[in-house]
Amino acid sequence: MNFYFKKYIKNLNNLYNLSQQDKLDKLYNKILKIKKNKKNKIIILGNGGSSASSSHAAVDFSKNAKVKAISFSDTSLITCLSNDYGHDKWMQKALELYVDNDDLVILLSCSGNSKNIVNAAKFCIQNKIELATLTGMSRKNNLVQTNKKGINIWINSKSYNLIEIYHLSILLYLVDRVIGKLVYAAN
Asked: Which of 11, 42, 19, 56 minimizes the C-alpha distance to 131?
């Protein structure tokens, strides 16, 4: 095994912080509430790689964990709303179109400073929509500062890829925790 790979895996393992378990438990309980309710959903949003993770997790929540979940990764939606309202407002506008009371919005941002993500968080707070954020980079990023009363899971890293791996790991951990097992048949 080469040195770089060992170092990479060591850095990734060092990010797994058990002190955040209480936040994960709160998020898990909110997801269970949505599953039991059956009329609400999880909306997961991110840019770039975080958008891909959002889409992956939304499919797994819906298909495998039987919890309604969506992400806004449709290019027609993104380009239409970005064109009409600006890139910094497209997520907020998408939430205005799709979010319902008692839904849960999960925002992913490595930096926590993307304007479109921060504007989406502000919309959720103003409209009393349940909000959880997954960020990295600076502990005092704009998203964490905006979501003072919500669930904020912060990753102590400045590496985009390590943060994105951790974010996806958290989301898929929650899928498996809702299912209650690690190994199950893909239906």
From this structure: 42
